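A further point concerns the way the authors explain their paired sequence and structure data. For illustration, here is how one protein appears when written out as sequence plus structure tokens:
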Amino acid sequence: MVIAVIGAQWGDEGKGKIVDLLAERFDVVVRYQGGHNAGHSVQIGNQSFVLHLLPSGVVHQGKTCVLGNGMVIDPKAFFEEADRLMGQGITITPERVKVSSRAHLILPYHRALDHTSEERLGNERVGTTLRGIGPAYEDKAGRRGIRFADALVPEVLRSRIERNLEDANRIIEAYGGQRLEASPIIEETSAIVERLAPFICDTSHFLNQAAARGESILLEGAQATLLDVDHGTYPFVTSSSTVIGGALVGTGLAPKHLAGVLGIVRTYTTRVGEGPFPTEMLESEAELGQLIRERGREYGASTGRPRRCGWFDAFATRYAAEINGFTSVALTKLDVLDTLDEIKVCVGYNLDGKKCDSLPAVSQDLRRVEPVYETLPGWKSSTLGMTDLSELPRAAREYVNFLSNHIGVEIGLVSTGPERSQTIIVRESALAKWLRG
């Protein structure tokens, strides 16, 4: 059985907790795209694990974790994270962590180009984390990238770094940056790739063989649907495919193995960085947005940046469900809304006085849309830690049902707090059946 977990909004929906919750029922957990810009936080008792590259399943000692070919990986960041996790008691060995030989490296000139790119864009900047992810994907698409399989061959690594650095330095210096020298980059990269060599293998073959043996595989992405390079709010997107198609391409798994897709949404919406955000709480609602930010701890796990907060956007989430073919949806952070008198949900967009049939493709149009809201009563009582739908206040149950109806997909899980135990699994949902095996 292969199940994919995909964010349905602009990221930060709580995928880390959900993957951690599911991982104990799976044999293999896989990251299929992104780099170390996305941070997942997993809370286990009093201990918090922040993961940037490694799948959330790594905190389960008996699981094999895979970094797929769709990722771009900074090898230095890999070992910084691995060493930190080992300091927290997590075993990181080549037997349980495997890195695709076809994944691409992030190198120092990618980080320099990331800074340069954002400065060049000025008011149209994307708001990246400046860690080199975008430029590494640019090199991949331009057939200039360096894969781990290539980096293991010293003469290939040297020649490609020297060639790429010539072009990178022209851009860096043209915008006032400091020229980079090839020798230190080659020396540092050679040493760290040598250390990484035991982890590197053909992960596509490994995963297809595991699926053929009947092992269960959980696929985990970074970012989310509305940041997909094709289907998101372009150009304010990430540089890879975050949707279900990207999960298959980014792992090399044959489509026949896929058994279901779990979408992850919050009970409200957030966004980090620049770009259109139709339901953002601004001006008269700014104080409410700050309340949700504090209650939901909406600050980036990687950067600490405050996330922009807004009402739940059922119209955009329905679009994400259509793109990905969600089988079930996990709804997170219900407890964050416990103190509100009333709760708004966006059920549609109007643009220039006309109803939108689908999510506008042009970012400027998304900035101009008028959200159509319906207002539901709040429940004004604590839902923290509840584990059964019947325990929820009536208004909270009605809110969950309202979202499900407007998304067009069952809600199979409701999270009522950050810990594993603070979760409601909806009986007879597809998700419950997966968990039962």
About this structure: The chain has 14 helices and 20 strands. The mean pLDDT is 92. Residues 265-436 form a domain with the Adenylosuccinate Synthetase; Chain A, domain 3 fold (CATH 3.90.170.10). The two ends are 9 Å apart (CA to CA).
